[in-house]
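HUMAN: Now follow token order:
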Amino acid sequence: MASLCKELPLPPHYDPAQVGQVWRVPYQQRAAEARQWAQQFALQPAANDARKVALLCVDLQNTFCLPDFELYVAGRSGSGALDDNRRLVEFIYRHLARLTQISVTLDSHRAMQIFHAIFLVNEEGENPPPFTLISADEVYQRRWKFNVAIGESLGITPEEGQLYLQHYVNQLKKQGKYDLTIWPYHAMVGGIGHALVSSVEEAIFFHSIARNSQPDFEIKGFNPFAEHYSAIGPEVLDGPDGKPLGSKSEKFLRQVLASDAVIIAGQAKSHCVAWTIDDLLRQCAALDSNLIRKIYLLDDCSSAVVIPGVVDYTAQAEAACSRFAEAGVHIVRSTDPLESWPGILF
């Protein structure tokens, strides 16, 4: 049918100026419009797709994507996540007929977590300011220590807290990962920052109704004792006692196995997107390296963490993309015709 070989127009309700705003999605109205849209463009149920195409949206939450929120991913342009989401929402609408399922990860935090200021103190009892990098040597020298005041709330003794902190930063160093970063309080469960960007939520909902495809949601980052950049698993898997803190999930590997293509977008390219792809590549390589060629990164729908005068992870993000491309991941742009994408997709 025509809708299967051509991009669709943007639906009348879509307003690009609203991508940077928080508002309530009118579900009933959008559901009725989505059914009409499906009829107008002869959209079939996703279950009928001859080619299964999955879209994985990483952490497209207010906390990361809107300038007034806690950990806005500005990129070097200053409008990074805003521009990324505008392009992604339009990509979803234009390719409703080709996207079989949309999966979403949600970074989900509470106040007392190892990457939030309250977890650590110095000799003066002060918490580290946001964006402080905590090295293994600094913890060993006790320049930064576990905050014993929160031990009871977390169900651990002061000694256990300090032992765990030292083990955690040692493991990050051993694995060649970023030093422990103290982030601003962000993605707080129950808060507005935790919610999906309204325009993104609306587009996913519209796709769900138009294609009869249930979106999938993956909660990550709830464990107080581990950072959880990757959708696949936490930064450190085991505690100092050898007991597991978490495990590597095979959920998205199964999605790759079941799909002809998995398209990845979201925030931030330097952190959660990069770590997710990195983990996914390891899983694919261990099973069948040809699976890697099913993965597509929407390069223009993801930005690096940049805080002017504080941190700039652009170089790390671009280095990660280069590694991914060398491994076989397709680095593409949302505005390119899908027919021009390399590989097995179209």
